[in-house]
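[09:14] KT: can someone run the structure on this one? pasting the chain below
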Amino acid sequence: MLRAVPPLRKNAVVTGGGCGYDAVLLVSFGGPEGPEEVMSFLRRVTAQRPIPAGRLAEVAAHYGHFGGVSPINAENRALLALLRDRLDLPVYWGNRNSPPFLLDALREMRADGVRRALGYVTSGYGSYPGCRQYREDIAAAQQALGAGAPEVHKLRAFYNHPLFVRPLASAVDAALSRLPAEFRRDAHLLCTAHSIPLEMARTSPYVPQVRETARLVAAATRREQRLSVAWQSRSGPSTAPWLEPDVSDALDALAAAGTRAVVVAPIGFVADHMEVVYDLDMVALPQARRRGLLVERAATAGAAQADLVAALTDERTRPGAPKPALGVRGPAHDGCPVGCCPAPGRPISVPGAGPAVR
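[09:31] RB: done, structure tokens below
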């Protein structure tokens, strides 16, 4: 059972207070919004990796099924509107790989007189791509902007926050209800998250955090004995080992073992990305149905993030506010340690970044 966490009323967040924060920055991955933007977007995403041109063309074709538009920016616009209605602090938005870019967001913040902001990164887990890389991106934007660039303090990882786990569990229950009644009780829960290289996984808390979220969702939906975790959307060269099993292989194994029905819950994604609407909805799930499985996909948290961001902002701006966390791991730290979640072969931090990002 999930502990009750009362929703914050509108405008419940203290405006800075003694903590001195004067804005919130929504930080996300970004995505193309038309066919003409797809290749430039993918080149930015893969700028530091030797990805063959043929592979980029293959991924670009995935976006073609959706008119060259990723769902993520629309999801973020909806979240931004909710946050601006909900918080007393002004809310800005900056992406890593597409407009509005982080540099543009920080420039707007500086023009508005923002000096010290809280950053909500749309990733609930600690890893290089899900945490440290965003911090490096913010630091690089601050350096490019120069004098007067606002400080940005990242809100804590929220993988075990009740207001993250609760909407995921509700989405699983909704997916279970779409299965034929006679298959619901024994339906398997397969939780998925983005695969990362094993070497990167060893230097971060990513895997245990994802597994803990899966365990908490399973407990809330009475699936503890019918739970497994798989990884998806691998994007690296085949020569380097990545987290396994892949979601399609996991679904094949469940079918081979006689499982009749499965709910796939993409708990690694806070909103619909191309990895959800293409890799799951158009590839993995149809393949599983061809194997005879009854499969439903649970929704991502989506707009429910607004309650989560409000609660995380409240605990950083109101002295003595509680930091709720489910399970036994406790709340994540507010400030990341200097050497956490490094990427193999990359420097620990952006040179000269100083204390402006943490």
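[09:33] KT: thanks! The two ends are 33 Å apart (CA to CA).
[09:34] RB: yep, looked fine to me
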